[in-house]
């Protein structure tokens, strides 16, 4: 522990010095000192505005602090034993009210101009509905050019594996959750380059076309923020906010963002990754996705309990473990290990129902998981953590469930 | 810290100057209650500071090492609540209790029994809140403490709030009752208890800033009470104020909260303006520049503070016209704030300056508060705020105005008036150590937060992407250093309370002005039984 601290201190100090000079172009580059210029025209304008205002406040600050320091040196008692007695000066008072006011107007004019521009979401070519969930995003493609019936939607989850971020040094007390307890004292795997930023399914958008985002939430307030697109917009349950981005051609690539409004336990664990592709690539991609969506869910039965358990374990880790515990011991959600609910046959139908339709704080998963995934995870929950019912639920059973 | 009747042989004193536990429990004496408030706020400062240490330990390196993200959220929440409502506000009330009667030549606060009550509610209010945290850390099953941020936005705090949210609601109600009673007491005292000849425009600026603060408190604390009551009924009585599914509006919560919350930040900073306006003239040996304009600037800030609240909510999707209005008003509020800073500089100008401990803290306040004010002006520029909002840039901004602003000024006040409160001079050596360690560590702690914020690190994050790691390491080091430095002040305060140190004369600071310096040090249990004569 100690050696890594010293190591980090040395690395930190060096990079602090270097980062002042270099200008990182990639969001995942090491520490940057300034606001990112981003890739859109708007984000560039915001950065220009930021630079202007930063210069203005720096000059004002240096002026004021300069006067204070000058006074501290020149008007200290050793130098100036007899204080002046003045305590009023009307002209001075008027001046330092009026001059700041004029400076403010000079700042307000460009700020207003950028704000008006940002507000204009008209004439977009692609509309994507962005929905915040605890703790993931979903993207639904609504319209593209003349196509009003795309029907493509998917969820986007954090791809960083929990072993990379669960590195507890203590157990119990302040560290109450089970997943991590097992890992006390274990060597942490090396963190990926895009640690806490990578997702399983990226939002894909075309370059050179205006994309309108309709931002909303399914539960609490989240905030959709890709810094390189300039600005964030809150995702509020029951309301739809609009924002937009136009990434110029030639700037294709992946841009990362993070949720920017406290949304509960895993607020820091729901990143945003946007893949900007050329319009031709986008057309191909969307056609492929449409075809996949049109073919309906995969209802091929599992070959046996083992296959269902294997798939179920993966689904459980990404969708259930955060609330129900990695070992089914419960947490925010109810436990499964050895409970009547997960072991008695009379609860089987209810078990499927809660997953499909939700109940109280438990969200409905029919939109997030395929029938195959739900079947696999119910099978897993009834046959793992010491449970041993032998129940094998098939995708068709879930698909038939209302 | 004040001496009991033992040192004061006025014949009727021993009837109503009890000793021991009863002296503090039943006290109606403004000095004793002021002392209670000050000790309480310092205890809360240490408790809230400990929570900040937990936060900074977790953020020292990427990955979750010490607490789980759920407990991390509880720490950020309760740290904010304890610091705002437990440390800064009671500290300024304590200063008001001690100093306002002494400054205006009154024998005591106007409503002494209410004064006692308003203090003794507080330990219970915070007891409830801290109980929730202790249960979460050590209780069976670790039931969650409030975990929705000190701003407790709905629906995170309503439909999705933990069971302890109800403890939080009760606790906030009690803090609010205490604040309102304290504020009423200040207003009544200032309007009715001034010594003959002490006209309003002769009052020390500290009294003025506190009078205006008291009006702000009376205006907005009921709004806070309304917000938590609406939460309560949403949670338990089937209403849907903040639930869109029932026809309500989660954004309404933010409007109600910030209508309280913005004046609240001025509630925390206006008394600081008063403190610094007392200290700078004393050590510049020159009268305060522009007294009248200081009073008007304070009043303007207070009035404007009611029409800027939505600048905390630029990203919720307000109409363009609303956004522009709040942007312009927010920019405007920097004008009277600037006037105050310029007045302090003009007070120092061509004075005969010495740099005793109170002056050191006061100058640090002026410079570092101005830093926070300037980043505040940057945040007012709405299009850029869309980038800054909810990042560490905001965290840097409000810690500059609240820690190096409000708290530094409270330390300035403590070093300035400790001789009057305790009768001994605070240790110079320990005081210097406390000042320099705090000054350097606070900047190491808060300045790099600007950079991680600009680089894009959202606030209230239990874990972060790797590019933020280097700054966070240094921020954490600054945090531990700042936290430890405050232990030095604990020693300073205990030494003064135990009367260890050089005895203080009635007026220990050569250039100090004001009635408080005309009574002996320590201030006797009862002062100004006969009103002083005001020139």
From TrEMBL, chain A:
**So which domain of life are we looking at?**
Bacteria
- Where does the Cytochrome oxidase subunit II copper A binding domain lie? 123-288
What Enzyme Commission number(s) appear in the record? 7.1.1.9
Q: Which residues form the Cytochrome c domain?
A: 307-385
Q: Which enzyme class?
A: translocase
Keywords attached to this Swiss-Prot or TrEMBL record, sorted alphabetically, are: Copper, Electron transport, Heme, Iron, Membrane, Metal-binding, Oxidoreductase, Respiratory chain, Signal, Translocase, Transmembrane, Transmembrane helix, Transport
- Where is this chain's protein located in or outside the cell? Cell membrane; Membrane
**Catalytic activity line of the entry:** 4 Fe(II)-[cytochrome c] + O2 + 8 H(+)(in) = 4 Fe(III)-[cytochrome c] + 2 H2O + 4 H(+)(out)
- Tell me which positions the record assigns to the signal sequence: 1-24
Q: Which residues form a coiled coil?
A: none
Cite a single GO MF annotation.
oxidoreductase activity
> What topology does the record note for this protein and the membrane?
Multi-pass membrane protein
Ranges for domain Cytochrome oxidase subunit II transmembrane region profile come to: 24-122
Q: Does the keyword field hold Signal?
A: yes
Q: Which SUPFAM superfamilies match?
A: Cupredoxins, Cytochrome c, Cytochrome c oxidase subunit II-like, transmembrane region
| Annotated cofactor note | Binds a copper A center.
Similarity section: Belongs to the cytochrome c oxidase subunit 2 family.
The name this protein goes by in its record? Cytochrome c oxidase subunit 2
What is the organism lineage in this UniProt record? Bacteria, Pseudomonadati, Pseudomonadota, Gammaproteobacteria, Oceanospirillales
From TrEMBL, chain B:
**An example Gene Ontology CC term for this record:** respiratory chain complex IV
Q: What class of enzyme is it?
A: translocase
Q: Which UniProt keywords apply?
A: Cell membrane, Copper, Electron transport, Heme, Iron, Membrane, Metal-binding, Oxidoreductase, Respiratory chain, Translocase, Transmembrane, Transmembrane helix, Transport
The membrane topology noted for this protein in its Swiss-Prot or TrEMBL record is:
Multi-pass membrane protein
Catalytic function, reaction form:
4 Fe(II)-[cytochrome c] + O2 + 8 H(+)(in) = 4 Fe(III)-[cytochrome c] + 2 H2O + 4 H(+)(out)
Q: Which Pfam families match?
A: COX1
Record's subcellular location: Cell membrane; Membrane
Alphabetized PROSITE patterns for the sequence: COX1, COX1_CUB
The biological process GO terms on file are:
electron transport coupled proton transport; oxidative phosphorylation; respiratory electron transport chain
Matching PANTHER family: CYTOCHROME C OXIDASE SUBUNIT 1
What job does this protein perform? Answer: Cytochrome c oxidase is the component of the respiratory chain that catalyzes the reduction of oxygen to water. Subunits 1-3 form the functional core of the enzyme complex. CO I is the catalytic subunit of the enzyme. Electrons originating in cytochrome c are transferred via the copper A center of subunit 2 and heme A of subunit 1 to the bimetallic center formed by heme A3 and copper B.
What is this protein's record name? Answer: Cytochrome c oxidase subunit 1
């Amino acid at each position: 522990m100690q050696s890594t601290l010293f190591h980090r201190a040395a690395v930190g100090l060096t990079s602090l010095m270097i980062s002042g000079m270099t200008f990182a172009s990639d969001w995942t580059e090491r520490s940057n000192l300034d606001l990112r210029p981003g890739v859109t025209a708007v984000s560039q304008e915001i950065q220009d505005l930021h630079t202007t205002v930063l210069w203005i406040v720096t000059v004002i600050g240096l002026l004021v602090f300069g006067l204070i320091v000058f006074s501290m040196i020149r008007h200290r008692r050793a130098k100036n034993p007899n204080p002046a007695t003045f305590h009023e000066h009307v002209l001075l008072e008027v001046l330092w009210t009026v001059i700041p006011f004029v400076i403010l107007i000079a700042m307000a004019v460009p700020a207003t101009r950028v704000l008006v521009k940002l507000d204009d979401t008209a004439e977009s070519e692609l509309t994507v509905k962005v929905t915040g969930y605890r703790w993931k995003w979903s993207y639904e493609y609504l319209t593209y050019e003349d196509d009003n019936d795309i029907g493509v939607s998917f969820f986007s989850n954090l791809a960083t594996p929990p072993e990379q971020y669960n590195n507890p040094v203590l157990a119990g007390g302040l560290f109450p959750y089970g997943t991590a307890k097992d890992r006390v004292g274990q060597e942490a795997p090396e963190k990926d380059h895009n640690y806490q930023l990578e997702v399983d399914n990226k939002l894909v958008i075309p370059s050179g076309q205006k994309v309108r985002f309709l931002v909303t939430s399914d539960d609490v307030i989240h905030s959709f923020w890709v810094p390189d697109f300039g600005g964030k917009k809150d995702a509020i349950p029951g309301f739809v906010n609009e924002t937009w981005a136009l990434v110029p051609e030639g700037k294709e690539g992946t841009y990362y963002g993070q949720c920017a409004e406290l949304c509960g336990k895993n607020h820091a664990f729901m990143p945003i990754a946007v893949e900007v592709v050329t319009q031709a690539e986008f057309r191909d991609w969307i056609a492929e996705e449409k075809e996949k969506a049109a073919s309906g869910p995969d209802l091929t039965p599992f070959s046996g309990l083992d296959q269902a358990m294997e798939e179920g374990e993966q689904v459980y880790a990404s969708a259930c473990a955060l609330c129900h515990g990695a070992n089914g011991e419960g947490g925010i959600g109810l436990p499964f290990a050895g409970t009547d609910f997960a072991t008695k046959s009379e609860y089987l139908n209810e078990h499927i129902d809660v997953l499909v339709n939700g109940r109280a704080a438990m969200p409905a998963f029919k939109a997030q998981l395929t029938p195959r995934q739900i079947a696999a995870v119910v099978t897993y929950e009834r046959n793992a953590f010491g449970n041993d019912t032998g129940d094998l639920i098939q995708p068709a059973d879930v698909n038939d469930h209302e | 810290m004040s001496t009991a009747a033992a040192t004061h042989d006025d014949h009727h004193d021993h009837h109503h100057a009890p000793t021991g536990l009863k002296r503090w429990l039943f006290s109606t004496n403004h000095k004793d209650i002021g002392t209670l408030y000050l000790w309480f706020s310092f205890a809360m400062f240490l408790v809230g500071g400990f929570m900040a240490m937990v936060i900074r330990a977790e953020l020292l390196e990427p990955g979750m090492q010490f607490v789980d993200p759920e407990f991390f959220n509880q720490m950020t929440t309760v740290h904010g609540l304890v610091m705002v409502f437990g440390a800064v506000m009671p500290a300024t009330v304590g200063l008001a209790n001690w100093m306002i009667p002494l400054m205006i030549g009154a024998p005591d606060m106007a409503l002494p029994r209410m004064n006692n009550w308003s203090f003794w509610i507080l330990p219970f209010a915070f007891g409830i809140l801290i109980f929730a945290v202790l249960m979460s850390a050590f209780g069976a099953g670790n039931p969650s403490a409030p975990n929705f941020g000190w701003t407790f936005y709905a629906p995170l705090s309503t439909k999705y709030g933990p069971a302890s949210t109800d403890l939080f609601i009760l606790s906030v109600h009690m803090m609010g009752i205490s604040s309102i009673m304290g504020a009423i007491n200040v207003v009544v005292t200032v309007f009715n208890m001034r010594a003959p000849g002490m006209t309003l425009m002769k009052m020390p600026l500290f009294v003025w800033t506190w009078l205006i603060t008291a009006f702000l408190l009376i205006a907005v604390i009921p709004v806070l009470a309304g917000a938590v009551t609406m939460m309560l009924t949403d949670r338990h009585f089937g209403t849907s104020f903040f639930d869109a599914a029932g026809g309500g509006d989660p954004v309404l919560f933010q409007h109600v909260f910030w209508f309280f919350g913005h004046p609240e930040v001025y509630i925390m900073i206006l008394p600081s303006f008063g403190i610094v306006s007392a200290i700078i003239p004393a050590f510049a040996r020159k009268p305060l520049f522009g007294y009248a304009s200081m009073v008007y600037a304070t009043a303007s800030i207070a009035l404007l503070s009611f029409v800027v609240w939505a600048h905390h909510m630029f990203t919720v999707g307000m109409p363009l016209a609303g956004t522009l209005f709040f942007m312009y008003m927010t920019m405007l509020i920097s004008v009277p704030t600037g006037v105050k800073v310029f007045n302090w500089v003009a007070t120092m100008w061509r004075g005969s300056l010495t740099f005793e401990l109170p002056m050191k803290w006061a100058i640090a306040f002026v410079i570092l508060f101005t830093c926070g004010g300037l980043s505040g002006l940057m945040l007012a520029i709405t299009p850029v705020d869309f980038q800054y909002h909810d990042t560490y840039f905001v965290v840097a901004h409000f810690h500059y105005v609240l820690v190096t602003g409000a708290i530094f000024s409270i330390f300035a006040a403590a070093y300035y008036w400790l001789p009057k409160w305790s009768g001994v001079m605070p240790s110079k050596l320990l005081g210097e150590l406390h000042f320099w360690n705090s000054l350097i560590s606070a900047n190491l702690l808060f300045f790099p937060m600007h950079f991680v914020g600009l680089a894009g690190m959202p606030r209230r994050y239990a874990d972060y992407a790797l590019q933020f790691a280097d700054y966070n390491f240094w921020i954490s080091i600054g945090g531990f250093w700042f936290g430890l430095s405050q232990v030095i002040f604990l020693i300073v305060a205990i030494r003064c309370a135990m009367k260890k140190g050089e005895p203080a004369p009635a007026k220990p600071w050569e250039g100090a002005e004001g009635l408080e310096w005309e009574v002996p040090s320590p201030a006797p249990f009862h002062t100004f039984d006969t009103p002083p004569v005001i020139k």
